[in-house]
Design brief:
Layout: H1 4-17, E1 24-26, E2 40-54, E3 60-74, H2 79-92, E4 98-100, E5 105-113, E6 117-119, E7 122-135
Parallel strand pairs: 1-2
Antiparallel strand pairs: 2-3, 3-7, 4-5, 5-7, 6-7
């Protein structure tokens, strides 16, 4: 039996890593070596629910969560650069998209931009990818 939470994370991280036109991605628990202010992405994953979806001899659960991709650009570059990156992400993780991982397929429910924030010397905007999966 696989560890479903790690399978979900792997599928989403792999999909992000396969995109072009984006700055470097710092995945969770990877060292961030940020000596000069250049654009970058960082990721977080939140597992928000695990609920019974079907009962009987082959029960399934519906797992839901948010895959947060945080876009950070130097303040001096303006908001346009971050919003261009956000457009790439919202198109790649569009609602009704299925993402095939090594062992699981993760479905995207919807994607939206969250509230921006400043983290000197960066301006950051999160892109929240709301996902779900049915599994045992």
């Amino acid at each position: 039996m696989s560890v479903i939470y790690d399978d979900i994370r792997e599928a989403l991280d792999s999909a992000l890593a396969g995109l072009s036109g984006l700055p470097e991605v710092f995945f969770r628990n990877a060292p961030e070596e940020d000596s000069t202010p250049t654009p970058y992405l960082s990721t977080r994953i939140f597992f928000t629910s695990r609920r019974p979806a079907t009962r009987g001899p082959n029960p399934q659960h519906r797992y839901e969560g948010i895959y947060r991709i945080i876009i950070c650009v130097p303040k001096r570059s303006g908001t346009g650069q971050a919003l261009r990156y956000a457009e790439i992400l919202t198109q790649a993780f569009d609602g009704s998209t299925d993402i095939d991982g090594a062992t699981k397929t993760v479905s995207i429910d919807f994607t939206e931009l969250a509230s921006d924030f400043e983290q000197d010397p960066y301006w950051c905007i999160p892109v929240d990818v709301n996902w779900y999966i049915y599994d045992r």
